[in-house]
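Annotated sample (chain length 59).
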Amino acid sequence: MNDLDADSLDLVELIMAFEEEFSTDDSPVEISDEDAENILTVQDALDFLTKKGYLKLFY
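Output written by the structure step:
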């Protein structure tokens, strides 16, 4: 993520953490490589997770 000064390994680990954190037994979360390439900022991650219904923000 550009705004976190993360390298490619950090990004892979972050995507894996998102998948693990937001998956349930009934609904596994899988973020494609194509989608992951478009997550460049924290806001991109929040927007993606919200759009896919994995995260509900209240603001």
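Annotation: Residues 1 and 11 are 7 Å apart (CA to CA).
Annotation: The first helix runs from residue 8 to 22.
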